[in-house]
Amino acid sequence: MLPPYRIALLGDSATQHLATALTGHAYDRGLGLSLFDADYDQLDTQIMDDSSELYAFGADAVAIFLCVEKLYAAYCATAQTDRSQFADNIYMKITSYWQTLLRHAELPILQFNFAEADDGVFGNYANKLEFSFLYQVRKLNYLLMQDSAASKNVHIVDLNAVQQRYGRKTLTDEKLYYLAKMPLTMQILPTVAKQVVDILLALRGRSAKCVILDLDNTIWGGVVGDDGLSGIQIGELGMGHAFSALQAWLLELRRRGILLAVCSKNEETSAKEPFISHPEMLLRLSDIAVFVANWENKADNIRLIQQTLQIGFDSMVFLDDNPFERDLVKSLLPEVCVPDLPADPAQVLNYLQSLNLFETVSYSDADRDRTEQYQTESLRQAQMRQYASYDTYLISLEMCATAKPFDAFHIPRIAQLTQRSNQFNLRTVRYTEAEIAAMAENPRYITLYFTLQDKLSDYGLIGVVILEEQNAGTLFVNTWLMSCRVLKRGMEEFIINKVMETASRLHYRQVIGEYLPTAKNAMVANIYENMGFTAAGEGRYAAQTQTFTPRPTRIKEETNG
Question: Among 325, 231, 313, 327, which residue's Cα sits nearest to residue 280?
């Protein structure tokens, strides 16, 4: 179970059943919510009054639900001459809520967009009339998207997408709204609650990072070992189109930064042949981070993939057409997400898209290079086996690192690391881009990001340290996290040496570190002691700058990069 999370729900309609659905769905997924459900239609009172219950509650996040029914009532009350500006006025009202909330605290805001509704007054011609309600509600959703993209603390809960997938009759019941001011049906509440919890979990660092693929009858039709290269179904003919559509979607995930791995019961040569030689195959070997094809059981092979990628099992999604294989993985690796794929290949893609398995609250250009980084890691491991000792191998890599203060260019990646890093993360505190930017400007904090490169590849930004001044002589390690891709190469030592060097240069007498245990960061439980710190009780450790002995490392510092 993740630590408790405090969320406030504000709405202009009855939201008590949505609040119940949120709490229940979050619990099912390991997130304990403490939820403040504001009274009916009290947004102005709760947000604009500094002494309101909202601010006394001390929320970690705020969700704002505004229904299209109230929006239409406001539209009807607007003079016809002013209706072309209706969306702009509502947009300014909503963004004023955001601004007021963010002045109180840099916390995430989850803003529901509006489920599109057409009053039928102009029919299809409404699409050409700027003052029509249909035009205005679409414009308003666009303005909210546009502004949320510029505001890193605001995340859109796409209620309109839920309506598009399930239909307006499933989303809302007019009688329920007229009698109880409930804009959502009981039937749709679990789906809407899932959208919110998906975002909350992404904010807490829980997100899918890898899709593990079976091959035969999953990403192509047929069995390549029996049917041969020309006999499998891919491409425009028959059901081959369904498999090509799935591959195209997987390729988009890979481009976004989701890792693709293969786990197939097959001869490796046969399994790789379509990736190399089939002219209509969209996925190629260069798109696959780890390729495992043998006759071992798939649970063991997924464990091998996990060890190679160094990510949590709960960051993995396993796709297999065979119910037996799915059940095996569910039983032996319950943390892995294993969707029950439809038997009909034509339905698979739509089903997977409906699950929203790849929610994220950030994106950076570095995500696009992730597959190549892991492929290079596989090459590196193969080369390591050629050396007589691990230390000799590390010397051969010619590793070079940099340590620099946070800058505007790297802030998105730094925030992303705080949100996603779970294993090498000493305190597991999540920060938004706005919070990271504020700390970079605050003289109370000393910020450092770390990069690493060797003769095989450039890892880019792989470590983050935030030091916080506690008093004139003491620095507290507010955050220390690192990518697991570079573990056990001396980067831990390089970082702690840099922290102590920086503290000494700025005339601090001591550095205090803290380890807060989670279900995932046991690997760093003893890191401070291993780095020469002394236990100070209650999970804290101390080191004196004048007596600290730098830790040995094979990494050199690049000072002119």
Answer: 231
Q: Are strands 510-514 and 474-482 parallel, antiparallel or unpaired?
A: parallel
Q: DSSP letters along 91-125, please?
A: HHHHHHHHHHHHHH----EEEE-PPP----SSGGG
Q: 503-519: per-residue pLDDT in tens?
A: 999 999 999 999 999 88
On whether the CB atoms of residues 342 and 320 are closer than 8 A, the answer is no
Kindly provide the b/e burial profile for residues 464-503, where b requires at least 16 CB atoms within 10 angstroms of the residue's own CB.
bbbbbbeeeeebbbbbbbbbbbbeebbbbbbbbbbbbebb
CA distances (Å), origin 261, targets 214, 264, 418, 476: 9, 10, 25, 40
Instruction: Tell me the per-residue pLDDT of 360-380, one tens digit each, with 9 for 90 and over.
Output: 887 766 666 666 666 666 666
The Cα 531–Cα 424 span in angstroms is 14
* Closest to 31 in 3D by CA, of 193, 200, 199, 205: 200
Token pair 């690391």: residue = 417
> CA–CA separation, 425 vs 521, rounded Å?
6
User: What are 535's two structure tokens?
Assistant: 């236990």
Whole-angstrom Cα distance, residue 477 to residue 169?
53
Please report which helix (H) or strand (E) contains residue 548, including its range.
Answer: none
What is the total residue count of the chain?
561
Taking only Cα atoms into account, the Rg of the chain, rounded to an integer number of angstroms, comes to 26
**How many angstroms separate the Cα of 349 from the Cα of each of 15, 246, 261?**
33, 6, 18
Q: Specify the DSSP element, H or E, that contains 65.
A: strand 61-65
Sign of the Cα torsion 501, 506, 509, 513 reads negative
